[in-house]
Design goal:
single chain; alpha+beta; Pnp Oxidase, Chain A; 2 domains; seven-stranded antiparallel β-sheet; 7 helices; 27% helix
């Protein structure tokens, strides 16, 4: 296909040099980054599969569910999920991770790149106990790069604008989607009920 840009040099024929913008990338967490992480209830984490395919997964919890241990270390609990352990398996093969933190109502985002490991250290597990329930494991992240992402993506998306929320009935229920994609011979309403019940009982 003509017009493909396959090298950084080719890309730079379309995109100008960022100049001073490069200076925003820090090697450690400054007070602003720590405050943002303490306010954030949601992030997306990117990893790489052994076959080289990229992967991204959401993580969420109470405000500040990711703990800042010091200037270059973060800790994040792994709560009950689908047990595919895609992210954790990827880290076992290649520890590089990229995290994108969101704060509801803020149009800025925070990017953190580093290397991670998974632990069940008793002290770490106890640190994240909620209602007597410990996480399945804890991810420890050694921070290598930190920088705030500009607001343009969220401005374009109007993500926090309640008037732009899409009615849920614009798509089938999640139960219907699961039934169709997994070719299950089960009523969608039963799947929806089971999923809602699981979310209530196994959130932590």
């Amino acid at each position: 296909m003509s017009g493909n840009l396959k090298t950084e040099e080719a890309l730079r024929t379309v995109y100008p040099d960022p100049g001073q913008t490069r200076g925003k990338v820090l090697a450690a967490l400054d007070p602003h980054a720590k405050t943002f992480i303490g306010l954030s209830p949601f992030l997306c984490i990117g990893t790489s599969r052994p076959d080289g395919l990229g992967d991204v997964s959401p993580r969420g919890g109470e405000q500040g569910f990711v703990h800042v241990l010091d200037d270059t270390r973060l800790a994040m609990p792994d709560r009950p999920g689908n047990n595919l352990i895609d992210t954790l398996s990827n880290i076992a093969h290649s520890p590089s991770v990229g995290l994108l933190f969101f704060v509801p109502g803020f149009e800025e985002m925070l990017r953190v790149n580093g290397v991670a490991e998974i632990t069940t250290d008793p002290e770490m597990m106890e640190r994240f106990t909620v209602d007597g329930r410990k996480p399945r494991s804890v991810m420890l992240i050694e921070v290598r790069e930190v920088f705030f992402h500009c607001t343009k993506a969220l401005k374009r998306s109007s993500l926090w604008d309640a008037s732009k929320q899409v009615p849920r009935d614009s798509m089938p229920s999640f139960g219907q989607i699961v039934r169709d994609q997994m070719k299950l011979d089960v009523a969608p309403a039963l799947i929806d009920t089971a999923l809602e019940d699981d979310a209530k009982k196994n959130l932590y």
